[in-house]
């Protein structure tokens, strides 16, 4: 068989072209984040991406007061509280609810499951006006708890569904064995099932934390006092005030805000993506 | 039609040595079976021939031309997959026409060739159906048609009959063999069913754990297995192995002793071994009631009637269970004391450590 | 008591759902018939808000923007790019495939304000913005993108986020297609395009449909990134319905009017929920529990 260079290497060439195209399409993402990191540590960037001088001056918001803005550490604390609050509530509710949906039969079970899943598709914005009124009535306006409870509520339907999936994956025999061995259902849940759904809890916890950490719209809408600001408001403010004057400062604050996301990405991403794909398929 | 030559083929997946130094050749127009248990490397070898896998090392020649780097589409092979791989959303016609479409062959020509091959395989009345509407046997023929329609130089089969029920399997065995002989296409057939390999192939390559253990005609492999693995894999019920026989070589004969048993083989073995394993095929042994020379005592454990044959399971004094074809007219009862008299010219002796055949 | 145990476990979930979903839905509908503002006074005005919507001269602009934004982002990114990425990344080795797919997840996981910052930089009106910088390499002058092409800014920014969901769904679907189909096609000599067109795409029809339906509804109600990047501007050029609702309620404190505008979003929510339910093929997921002991 006399094959041309193109034919012989057709599969290798095709792979090369595909990777090239992918790099091209993905370039805005690559470029964007590279810029974020470079710019935050540079005095200025010339010719696109070359730093004139590496500096930590942009990070001065960590030790200096920036006029008109709350203390960065207070803000970070607020953000952390929000994230932890959302995470805690979500994990609690979903690990109980997921178990109930997976292991109990009761009238209305299937309608409830459909209802819960359907809620996931409901856009948050449609209810915000009413929620504003609701929070005001409950005296939760301008409080972190208001946002925490709201955020958690919107995410627990889907989270419960995911946890149910994890519970479903545990063979019934394990529970039967536990019951036969003399444990109550609660003990079986605590000692046998809970450790086995740890991956599910981990997934729920991590995503809940990150979503709480990143929350912007609710904070923007329901919180007014600067001392309750989270980093999202802080960064947004910086973008508005300092964007044209000092990209360095803005990118530094942005990068600072992104730290948990980056940590997540480097240490956990591979496993998470596989799990998310499983979850999406249902 | 090309001949195929595989030279020292190795295919590793990370640390797993799926194929570890396999060499064999297939003559032009020959039907060769790659036989072995699951995971032995036969399918991997087949996929390397197809070009789906690239060898880690070693060469593959089609008609003395090195094809290691030739992509599958230029090797002109047709392949029938174990699960048929029929595209579920296409009709039978479109499935068969697919390889021709890929070559940009004109529509009229495609239609002609598809109908021709469908007629030959007796599926021309199914052309408008979807695969899900076909029986297993019909799907199999469609898969075969798709492989044949592009007039390939080599045909590769990956356990195509394993998803069919026993009767259909025997029917298709004969049909595939007949078809191959009629068309004369060089064929390589992977299977784990030794009966399939024995009845269909002109030569069988026995694989185990990534290595080619023995390559020969069905007769050769049956009569002269190279080691215990081949002896036990070929033949149904498999060869019985009796361990712990001591060896004494004398002039003109070899004496095997175990407990009270003495077997005198009328051949002078050339060996330094002190101990051998004796292999006896169920069809090469008699069950008798009275003590004789060269007999092994035992008790009848269970009898398996098969209509035409019966298999008598005899438990030896050492606890081994030996299966022997008995006389359907004289069925022994369970618990009876009997003697096993092997056909001494047909037994095999094996080195207990290397498991290789000595006789 | 037996029957109540599961409900007890589900109580927190139900409580949250009722308080933050069901009650707000009811409230929205009720408030829509008032002219409530930041004083929180209940003053019923009948259908006045709805009449106002029909005479609001900004509404036609908002509706047009919503459709352009939704279908532009959907076609170009949430469907188009998602499909492209999943087809491409499944055609090469898993190592490269995972690399690119992981990168595409980054936008979705980044805090929205930081992500907004990146796009604001890319479309910065000065020569320091990425796009203008590239234009500068070709000798072209910098453009003020916010004024010349705000809708494109918004579509691109949302698109890079939206594509990741479709990418996950399509990739999972493509990976579930039996490998033998592709091997057979390779042996038969089909080109990459032929394989995609005749084998892959027909076999993921359900997924294509699902993503289209789900993402359309999701885009119709989205606004966060638009809020951050253009805030609906300049002068309502990128004001979509959801954002208009937000502005009316929280910038102008017209809660009654905002609630009325929200109702269309609630309807979208209900339709989404029904579509979602229908698509998920519930029977297989409804395995009955196997313990009757309490």
From TrEMBL, chain A:
Gene Ontology terms for molecular function: ABC-type maltose transporter activity
Protein localization: Cell membrane
One GO cellular component, as annotated: plasma membrane
Protein name: Binding-protein-dependent transport systems inner membrane component
InterPro entries registered for this protein in UniProt: BP-dep_ABC_trans_perm, MetI-like, MetI-like_sf
Organism: Thermotoga petrophila (strain ATCC BAA-489 / DSM 13996 / JCM 10882 / RKU-10)
Span of domain ABC transmembrane type-1: 76-268
One GO term of the biological process aspect: maltodextrin transmembrane transport
Membrane topology: Multi-pass membrane protein
UniProtKB/TrEMBL annotation, chain B:
Alphabetized InterPro entries for the sequence: AAA+_ATPase, ABC_transporter-like_ATP-bd, ABC_transporter-like_CS, ABC_transpr_MalK-like, ABC_transpr_MalK/UgpC-like, Mo/tungstate-bd_C_term_dom, NA-bd_OB-fold, P-loop_NTPase
Record-level GO cellular component terms: ATP-binding cassette (ABC) transporter complex, substrate-binding subunit-containing
GO biological process, one term: carbohydrate transport
Limits of the ABC transporter domain: 4-234
GO molecular function, one term: ATP hydrolysis activity
Key words of the record: ATP-binding, Cell membrane, Membrane, Nucleotide-binding, Translocase, Transport
Pfam families with a match to the protein in the record: ABC_tran, TOBE_2
UniProt entry tagged with the keyword Lipoprotein: no
Protein name per the record: ABC transporter related protein
UniProtKB/TrEMBL annotation, chain C:
Any single Pfam family the record assigns to this protein: BPD_transp_1
Key words of the record: Cell membrane, Membrane, Transmembrane, Transmembrane helix, Transport
Top-level taxon: Bacteria
A GO cellular component entry from the record: plasma membrane
Coiled coil (UniProt feature): none
Transmembrane segments: 7-33, 67-90, 102-122, 151-174, 206-228, 255-276
Primary location class: membrane
Compartments (UniProt record): Cell membrane
SUPFAM superfamilies membership: MalF N-terminal region-like (SSF160964), MetI-like (SSF161098)
Classification via Gene3D superfamilies: MetI-like
A Gene Ontology biological process term: transmembrane transport
Family annotation (CDD domains): TM_PBP2
Topology versus the membrane: Multi-pass membrane protein
InterPro entries recorded: ABC_transporter_permease, MetI-like, MetI-like_sf
The family this protein is said to belong to: Belongs to the binding-protein-dependent transport system permease family.
Protein name per the record: Sugar ABC transporter, permease protein
Species of the source: Thermotoga petrophila
